[in-house]
Amino acid sequence: MRQAGVGAALNICVRMEEFAQVLSLAESQPDIFATVGVHPDGEGVSEPDVDRLAACADHPKVLAIGETGLDYYRLSEPLQWQRDRFRVHVRAAKQAGKPLVVHTRSAPEDTLGILREEGAEQAGGVMHCFTESLEFALAALDLGFYISFSGIITFRNAGDLQAVASRIPLDRMLIETDSPYLSPVPFRGKVNEPSRVVLVAQKIAELKSVPLATVAETTSQNFLRLFRPPQAEAGAAEFSASEQGRIMRGKV
What domain range includes position 139? Predict the structure, then answer.
């Protein structure tokens, strides 16, 4: 990651049972940070309340609440437990004063509905690994959220998503890996890693007809603006000339 010029990675917590491991990795490295949350797919896992999430988010290396959201792709109704979990995370983000990392799949109306009902614009956040429509993206932007693109945007069959990315203002965009999944071309199908976020940046630069350095600089500043990492902890990480990497499920 460092050799590729990526200045920071946000290591995503997807279940509370792994939070200690995720946080330990962040504490051990100046350029790795953490989130706290429970992925919407997880059933039969620990369900934190608002106070527990907010307390965990009080740690200086924990920059956001999530990954949270809604995912109706693999699961079928009744899914009220998933919607209730999402609301808890939004409330915790507001209480902690930390942004949200939102996952949404096959649930655009309910995702936006809950964000609006819970006043998520008070916390802000990012729609991670974005695959939704331009209409959804514009609604999320109106709520103060950023839109983050992964290696999917490099895929040959991702024309619709590429069209959306070309319309999103660069100053409201983040880039990510979603490691260990979704390796960008030419590594599609292989285990992903944070260094490959550079290939996502290259594709964004191509779509927007701007220099790669512009994408790197702007998305890095967006990362700083949204997540506000403590600079004392950041140490020598070169945020001003880096891209955002994301490490999923506590695995580098």
Answer: 8-248
User: Which residues share a beta bridge with 11?
Assistant: 34, 247
3 inside domain: no
Q: Rounded to 10 degrees, what is the CA torsion of 177, 115, 141, 65?
A: -40
Q: Tell which residue, 29, 28, 7, has the closest CA to residue 198.
A: 7
The answer to whether position 1 is within a domain reads no
Task: Give which of 53, 125, 40 is closest to 96, Cα–Cα.
Answer: 53
Low-confidence ranges of the chain (pLDDT < 70): 231-252
Total domains present in the chain = 1
pLDDT tens digits for range 194-235: 999 999 999 999 999 999 999 999 999 999 999 999 863 444
Cα(244)–Cα(178) distance, integer angstroms? 11
DSSP letter string over 140-194? HHHTTEEEEE-GGGGSTT-HHHHHHHHHS-GGGEEE---BTS-PPTTSTTSPP-G
pLDDT at 74: 86
**Are 183 and 189 in contact, with CB atoms under 8 Å apart?**
yes
